[in-house]
Amino acid sequence: MTDIVAKSKATAEAVLLGIQGKRGGFFLVFALILCSSFLFLWAIGAVPVTPQAAGQGIVREEQGERGEKPIRIVAETIGLDVKVQNPGSRDTSLLDRALEKGAVYYPGSALLGERGNTLLFGHSSYLSVVVKSAYRTFNGIQKLQQGKIVSVFSEEKEYRYRVTSVRFAKAEEAVIDLGVGKPRLTLVTCDSFRTKSDRFVVEAELVGSYPSAS
Prior knowledge:
Elements: H1 2-19, H2 25-43, H3 51-63, E1 72-75, E2 80-85, H4 92-99, E3 103-105, E4 117-122, E5 149-153, E6 157-169, E7 184-189, E8 199-211
Parallel strand pairs: 2-3, 4-7
Antiparallel strand pairs: 1-2, 1-5, 3-4, 5-6, 6-8, 7-8
């Protein structure tokens, strides 16, 4: 280590003596001293890590976080408070059976806490007589207004979303976009996963997540 320091100093002194009085010598001396100092710091392991390299570990840690399954959805402004079913596959018969019990998380969409679009479906019916309450799961979601909060709960956290748009979509429209880079929530009314039908679509952006009080 002492030899490295001595050689660096000797090199700088020799160059300084050799170019004194010459035009532009100051800048050359400065550059050589800077290089010598860098070599010394590198030799003792004191070269600083760039911010980009330092942040790579944080990014990997965040991407490694596991998402959580939704188990309940609440929108107080429209009186919505229902359980969310989590079917194990996209089999249409399995999804339709889940709709008979409440809101349904669409397998393969983003889990809570992950980047991407979390899709929840639910029946909507305005018949005067309805056999099952689940047929009215998403009644009134079209009344949600921009800026209103929708909460989706996991076993441990509450994820709050702010409504950004509410619209009516015709059956032939492609109403779902899974290719979003930020955490989002989409609510869709659904008669059946077997057929296409007109539907209401509510889109919302994540505000934050909080320890669940329920």
